[in-house]
Amino acid sequence: MLEPSIDKLQTKINSKYTLVTLAAKRARQIQNTKMHQVENPRAATFVGLALEEILEEKLTVDPDQEIIHD
Questions:
Q1: Is the pLDDT of residue 10 over 70?
Q2: Which InterPro entries does the record match to this protein (predicted)?
Q3: What share of the chain is helix, strand, coil (3-state, %, to 5)?
Q4: Phi/psi of residue 2, each to 5°?
Q5: Element (H, E) at 60
């Protein structure tokens, strides 16, 4: 089962397409920099870390689809 759940994630970002795109871009950034914004991550993967950042509202998206870190 995916954690965090898609239902919880869609309360933060309404579009599944935007959610997937944002998570993929951020996962690549985390992989390259080895830095993330989750204090106690539960995920073992870069995508999981990106999804946790979205759920904790440490990662948002602007209208131009650029990643924004809080």
A1: yes
A2: DNA-dir_RNA_pol_omega, Pol_omega/Rpo6/RPB6, RPB6/omega-like_sf
A3: 45, 10, 45
A4: -75, 130
A5: strand 59-61
